[in-house]
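User: Please work through this fold.
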Amino acid sequence: PGWWYNAVEYQYPPHLRQGSYEEEGRSINFMKAGITTADRVVTVSPGYAEEIQTYLGGWGMEGMLSNRQPVLNGITNGIDLEEWNPKTDKHLAYNYDIENFEEGKKMNKLALQEELGL
């Protein structure tokens, strides 16, 4: 679609160009292309998602990033220690903790290999 070419600062293919392309300072910004056409844009934190929409953190793309705000969000760094606890995880074949983690990991690896037919 035509709007996509403008989003990535499209230039004609080399055989259709006149003049020196690089010396004119024009190029395709693949980062901008990806952000513009993505269904969802996720950053490393909610704060960073806000920061990149400002001139201080947007590096010239803050306007475009602000326009993508409905699909732009940040995930919190780290993991949920309750949800990702091998001692209580119901999805593991064998639960384990710090006392028996070597045996627990070994048993889970064997169970996974058996499940996958390896």
Notes: The chain has five helices and two strands. Strands lie at 41-43, 72-74.
